[in-house]
Design a protein that fits this description.
Blueprint lengths: L7 E4 L5 H11 L3 E6 L21 H7 L3 E4 L5 H13 L2 E4 L5 H4 L4 H7 L4 E6 L14 H7 L20 H24 L3 E6 H8 L1 H10 L19 E3 L5 E4 L4 H10 L4 H4 L6 H6 L1 H12 L4 H10 L4 E3 L3 H4 L3 H5 L3 E4 L13 E4 L23 H7 L4 H8 L1
Parallel strand pairs: 1-2, 1-4, 2-3, 4-5, 5-6
Antiparallel strand pairs: 7-8, 8-9, 10-11
Helix pairs in contact: 1-7, 3-18, 7-8
């Protein structure tokens, strides 16, 4: 049995942050009923440049597998009544409209709490439901800018750089899922629901704790270090190997440096006054990095990764996504879930399409999902039928 079996999510969210939150809950066994507008539905269905995937884009698939799709025009009274009936049966309402929009549609928290006093209601937005930035529009790259996240990426003397995937959307969705779980747990104890306000800016700053708190404590911002590790150590960064590929070292602690010196047969580094401590190594970064670079050009990246890792020296070969996604390690850990694509979509590589799992394992009933893609509105009739609507009423709602 999965942890969230029996929990129903009425999901009015779209694009990425909200759907990723409900995706995580679905992987844990919750029933997610995705409410979309008729016609085109969630804009994420059309995300990307390859129009062959319109209606079922890979990005949409990645966070919506296993959900049920109900198409409702919430501006129509009969459809709004159906949405309210759904909420009466739900444990959680999730929405990520701009602040105030869901209330104007007639499904704000006050209404839903009256319909279902135990409801856990989660609103996801760019800057939250309060504060001077409340009504500002926001998407992932905007919040990467306003949160200071972009200032942490890039070379020391180069331009600031956005993280190359929608990290703000992802961490916001994860934060929302965590908050929903906490609220459901408290409801088990108290019997009462509650309202959750999740902001992309707030979630980003919480995610950036290791960079933000040092400023709040010292008043000094941390420098950008490019591909050098957070410590700034010359033994923590990228190095070119014999085959022209790169490895990333993470040698930051004293015992790690000593192990590295011995493994590379450079024990003279241990007695060299320039390298005796982390502070001395930092002061003499250029010299140590030059020596280390010469040594690392004697083997391939794959060889260094394997032998150093076996010797407990942090080292990883730099891979692109196409290489990382097919590591056998992922399959062994259940990190990929096979799915079937509709026949109208291009066939997947090697004939197998997969999504990424939740990112953790459990001893029993862990994260997983059945192989079902939510075609727009495909579950409208069946879901409305379970809510007690007659065939005639369903036709009226769907017209």
């Amino acid at each position: 049995m999965q942890p969230l079996e029996g929990i129903r999510i009425a999901d009015f969210s779209h694009v990425m942050a909200g759907p990723f939150a409900s995706h995580l809950l679905r992987l844990m066994g919750a029933e997610v009923i995705k409410v979309e507008s008729p016609g085109r539905g969630d804009a994420m269905r059309y995300y990307g440049y390859d129009r062959r995937y319109d209606g079922m884009s890979p990005a949409f698939i990645g966070v919506n597998v296993g959900k049920k799709s109900v198409a409702l025009n919430l501006k129509k009274p009969a459809a709004l009544a159906a949405a309210k009936k759904l909420i009466e049966t739900a444990d959680v309402v999730l929405e990520n409209f701009r602040p105030g929009v869901i209330t104007r549609l007639g499904l704000g928290y006050d209404v839903c709490k009256t319909l279902n006093p135990g409801i856990v209601y989660c609103s996801v937005s760019g800057y939250g439901q309060s504060g001077p930035m409340r009504d500002w529009p926001a998407i992932d790259n905007i919040v990467q800018a306003t949160s200071g996240m972009m200032s942490l990426s890039g070379e020391t003397d180069g331009e600031w750089m956005r993280v190359g995937f929608p990290v703000v959307d992802t961490i916001t969705g994860q934060s929302a899922a965590f908050a929903i779980l906490a609220a459901l747990f408290r409801r088990e104890k108290t019997g009462t629901g509650e309202y959750i306000d999740v902001a992309m800016l707030d979630a980003s700053l919480a995610f950036m704790t290791s960079a933000v708190v040092p400023f709040l404590v010292t008043g000094t911002t941390m420098p950008r270090t490019g591909n050098t590790g957070f410590s700034g150590q010359p033994t923590s960064g990228l190095f070119t190997t014999a085959d022209g590929r790169k490895v990333s070292l993470g040698v930051v602690q004293q015992h790690q440096f000593e192990a590295l010196a011995r493994y590379l047969d450079r024990e003279e580094w241990l007695t060299d006054s320039r390298y005796r401590t982390a502070d001395r190594r930092l002061a003499n970064s250029k010299a140590l990095k030059a020596e280390l670079s010469k040594v690392l050009k004697t083997r391939t990246a794959e060889e260094w990764e394997a032998c150093m890792s076996a010797a407990s020296i942090p080292c990883g070969m730099v891979r692109d996504v196409s290489e990382a996604a097919v590591l056998p390690h992922l399959s062994q850990r259940g990190m990929k879930i096979p799915i079937s694509l509709p026949p109208n979509l291009p066939p997947p590589p090697e004939g197998i399409a997969e999504i990424i799992n939740a990112g953790f394992m459990m001893t029993g009933g862990g994260p997983s999902v059945e192989d079902k893609l939510p075609m727009l509105g495909a579950d409208t009739e069946s879901v409305l039928g379970t809510l007690g609507f007659s065939e005639e009423e369903i036709r009226d709602i769907m017209d």
